[in-house]
Predict the structure.
Amino acid sequence: MCGIVGYIGKRDAIPILMDGLKTLEYRGYDSAGLVGFKGEEVVFEKAVGRVANLDEKIDKHGGFSGNIGIAHTRWATHGGVTELNAHPHTGCNQNIFLVHNGIIENYQKIKDKLIETGHRFYSETDTEVLAHLIEELRDKDNILLEDAVRLALQKIKGTYGLVVVDKRNPYKMVIARNFSPLILGVGKDEFIVASDATAILRSTSSVIYLNDGEIAVLEPDKYRIFNIDNEQVDRTPEELDWDIETAKKGDFPHYMLKEIYEEPEAIKNSIRGRLDLENGKAVLGGLSSIKEDLSKIDRLHISACGTAYIAGLVGEYMIEEYAGVPVEVDYASEVRYRKPIFGKRDAMLTISQSGETADTLAALYEAKEKGILTLGIVNAVGSTISRETGAGVYQHIGPEIGVASTKSFVSQLSILALLTVYIGRKKGMSLVMGKRILDELSRIPEKMERLLKLNDGIKELANRYAGYNNFLYMGRKYNFPMALEGALKIKEIAYVHAEGYASGEMKHGPIALIDKNFPSLIICPQDSVYEKNISNIEEIKARGGIVIAIGTEGDDRIRNLVDDVIYIPKTLEMLTPILVSLPLHLFAYHVGVKKGYDVDKPRNLAKSVTVE
Ligand code: F6R
């Protein structure tokens, strides 16, 4: 969603800001804008569409080289996609400029009052109100920019990642955060502020994660952090362990393909140092503070969105079968609206790649408010969810740039397998079973490497099937959630209507859809429900339907039943979803590419969904 970049220092700000905006493009946006100062001179441009359109406008300013500026990519919430609505926003006198992520809930009330005092508004956004309010407070009593920002924030209700500059003092920048990510990169005599660590990495790996309600005032060689009540806050920078190379596309045509190819490595990184094969135990240091309580839980609630939710469903099957703990999985967006029953000894696990998904965060707050144990599986270090959960497990897979979750999904599945062993061994899982699961998990990356060799075959298959407008994805038990994942991926990447179903449900409705124009993809490895899935395949074939199957290597029977088959290596039943992911992801990718879509940035989608 919306992205923020700000720079203050000794270097030329504009190339750094434009570079930052390009890095943030993957998050999804519809317009972009930038303001930079050099003394009294100002470059202020906005453009609808791609950052490249803004680049063209900025280019016209030729040699401009100021040392301070702010920039933004907008994903429309209040008001349409227009230049006027794009950020930065400014007040009546065009001195104060700001970029903002989040939502100002009481903006209309403040706007009405400001209009009464003579302010004139040009946009439909909630953000513009902030610019006028800060202008009003600063100019009326001639107070410092940081004081005006603090006083303005005391008056608003809502969420913000905010960066403010004033043309009259081009040596100062004020930033603030409340429930919307903002990271401060601390360089030598310079600061880079961004809503996403990837936009900072090129300049520095030394970062400060602002907490909610905190404000920082930045001058090229110093910074000061305080809270909304103007109390000083001490914070030292931390090292960000993400590698800049991971955020580059290299020789791959798309990030999505690169990240599918990184799936084996992602699993290695997520399980590294966490397998105690000798004792059949999972070593999850991030859970040590809650280890005793976790071993006593009565029930685990899993809350997440999209693909992370699907990972949670697979986790439900794993944990219930092998750790014997009842699990309930919810779309995070539903948790606060239904009335979930949390027992005293229940725990909530939130799963989120970005660690910033607003709905997942809201579910987490709901659980915290009810006083139950909370834990998380998160990729983005220092993200809000990672800091708000009581304990957790980091994915350690580096940035994921493609909008679709791919390497992140398999990493989450492998951590859920670890968590199953972690909880299971405290709940009576045998040493032998613990060893078996971990031993097989350690072999998964090598099996995934083998699966990557299928890329050309899956591409050819995808090209043949790219003309179909509908798909039915089906699977049972562990692979029912994988049917949902396959359908979700082809929907978002290739804009193909697809239904994900538990195979057993086929006869209760979806079978009516089957004809020669509605292919089914059935996930049918040789597991405990193999024969049941075979029956479903036969039923579809009897009705003239087309079937692609994902089966186990060496299964010749299935080859004779279906139209096309993709083979995966044999593994434990509970780990098959990890292997199944890769061909599902490749298939969706190749159908999307064949249809000519921008698979890294599917329409209307955002990488990090920071609004409800
Ligand atoms: C689908 C996809 C989304 C995300 C969802 C949650 O491919 O990427 O469904 O899984 O938006 O995002 P995180 O994991 O960042 O909370």
